[in-house]
Specification:
Elements lengths: L1 H14 L5 E4 L11 H17 L4 E6 L6 E7 L5 H18 L4 E5 L3 E6 L29 H18 L6 E9 L2 E9 L5 H19 L4 E5 L3 E6 L9 E3 L7 H41 L1 H10 L6 E3 L2 E3 L9 H7 L8 E5 L2 E4 L9
Parallel strand pairs: 6-10
Antiparallel strand pairs: 1-4, 2-3, 3-5, 4-5, 6-7, 7-9, 8-9, 11-12, 13-14
Bound molecules: 2-acetamido-2-deoxy-beta-D-glucopyranose (7 copies).
One 2-acetamido-2-deoxy-beta-D-glucopyranose (NAG) binds next to strand 3.
Length: 360
């Protein structure tokens, strides 16, 4: 007995999934039980599964004003007509049971049904709903770049769904996110709205998807006229084209930046350490240079080798200089006073010469 219940409930569970979301609109009030509206409603909603399942979409209407009702059914583009019919049957029963409002919609993974006192044909009012999938409760490991890939995929699918007439406003696709993760998605519109309306509806839905699910392992947004979804597994039953991943701009670049930073750091360290050693050596040599300055200058003068003196900023080479005796130079440079030192040249220390008493 227990086994039978478990078996039956298992079969039941595999055939009929729970609705994703049920929206009984509170805006327009409820219809009266036993009213003509309710009678028309039942005709519309119970007719929808049989007239919609073969093509996956249809509209129907019943009654005259003010009790006229219109209804619409849509199956996800990849489901078989029998799976579509099973889903729509369940949906129509559930919707009549759950809602008593004059306007309502129910969404399942494989199908949706809506009815209203308003003419639903071409009625495109975006009102996104956010059913919470199991996958939506888990976050992805790389939260920084994930949504860029989801957006790339969804933008592509939205255009495909809206503009590719061979696809009945349904598009599936996949994009490789990492070595072990591929994002699968679909975008779909009801076939009664225009291309631009479909694109607009999906762009609103994508904004909502960003809000709820930009770093989640899955997400779905449903609205009356469009829906979109992504998962890290292939949840649909259709061949899907692979969308090209972005050039290694996002994550690839981080590796590049890391390499460049490493090289720069190593280079800077090499330069700093190298020049420190160089400066230390140079400093030591400078001390030695200072010691021999006076003697060297006297020596250089004595052997009459090139010496450069400056005269009011003008460089004068020693070859052009008239002969000067050492006493004149000593007097002119104030006995090689540090205050007369201009700098250190290639030939030795350079002194400023004051011409008081010195003749050219
Ligand atoms: C919609 O249903 C009507 C009535 O059954 C049918 O004639 C029509 O072919 C259906 N349209 C589509 C697109 O399935
Ligand atoms: C609903 O609107 C469509 C397009 O605007 C129109 O073709 C259709 O006849 C209308 N249906 C009803 C029942 O008013
Ligand atoms: C019912 O009829 C009224 C008046 O013709 C119309 O405005 C309204 O759109 C119709 N509703 C449906 C569901 O077709
Ligand atoms: C429309 O979809 C079909 C089937 O996937 C594809 O072969 C075709 O290239 C698409 N057309 C456009 C314009 O994208
Ligand atoms: C993919 O690999 C990363 C680590 O590289 C891991 O964190 C993540 O859970 C893996 N994802 C799946 C779906 O296996
Ligand atoms: C997937 O599609 C194949 C081929 O159309 C079909 O045989 C199979 O039953 C489908 N599976 C589901 C779960 O719809
Ligand atoms: C969608 O992606 C495919 C494959 O990367 C590409 O050929 C196509 O041009 C894209 N379509 C749009 C509208 O971006």
């Amino acid at each position: 007995m227990c086994f039978l219940i478990v078996l039956l409930s298992t079969i039941f569970a595999t055939v009929v999934a729970d609705p994703l979301y049920t929206a009984c609109s509170t805006e327009y009030g409820n219809y009266d039980l036993g009213s003509p509206f309710e009678k028309n409603l039942k005709v519309v909603v119970e007719t929808l599964p049989s007239i919609s399942s073969s093509t996956g979409f249809n509209n129907t209407a019943s009654g005259i004003f003010p009790d006229n009702v219109s209804g619409q059914a849509l199956c996800r583009g990849d489901v078989t007509s029998s799976a579509c019919q099973t889903c729509l049957r369940e949906a129509s029963q559930k919707l009549l049971k759950e809602c008593k409002s004059k306007d309502a919609t129910i969404w399942y993974e494989a199908c949706q049904i809506r009815y209203s006192f308003q003419n639903l044909t071409s009625l495109n009012v975006y009102a996104g709903k956010y059913p919470v999938l199991e996958s939506e409760k888990k976050s992805v490991s790389d939260t920084v770049h994930f949504y860029d890939y989801v957006k790339l995929l969804m933008d592509n699918l939205s255009i495909d769904a809206a503009l590719n007439h061979s696809k009945l406003m349904f598009a599936t696709g996949e994009i490789k996110f990492s070595s072990n993760e591929t994002i699968y998605g679909h975008a779909q519109c009801t076939r009664d709205i225009r291309e631009d309306e479909c694109q607009e509806c999906l762009s609103f839905a994508l904004l909502d998807l960003k809000g709820c699910c930009s770093s989640k392992q899955g997400g779905i947004i449903v609205s009356g006229s469009c829906n979109l979804r992504f998962e890290l597994y292939k949840y649909y039953n259709a061949s899907s084209h692979l969308i090209a991943s972005p050039t290694p701009k996002g994550r690839g670049n981080w590796k590049m930046v890391a390499i460049i930073v490493s090289i720069t750091t190593i280079s800077v360290l090499t330069i700093v350490i190298g020049s420190s050693i160089f400066c230390l050596r140079r400093k030591r040599r400078n001390y030695r240079d200072m010691e021999r300055n006076h003697l060297a200058l006297l020596n250089e003068l004595a052997i009459s080798r090139g010496i450069t003196l400056t005269e009011e900023g003008q460089l004068v080479s020693s070859e052009d200089l008239p002969f000067m005796d050492l006493n004149t130079i000593i007097a002119a440079t104030d006995n090689f006073a540090d205050s007369n030192k201009l700098g250190q040249g290639g030939f030795g220390t350079v002194y400023k010469v004051s011409y008081k008493g010195a003749s050219r």
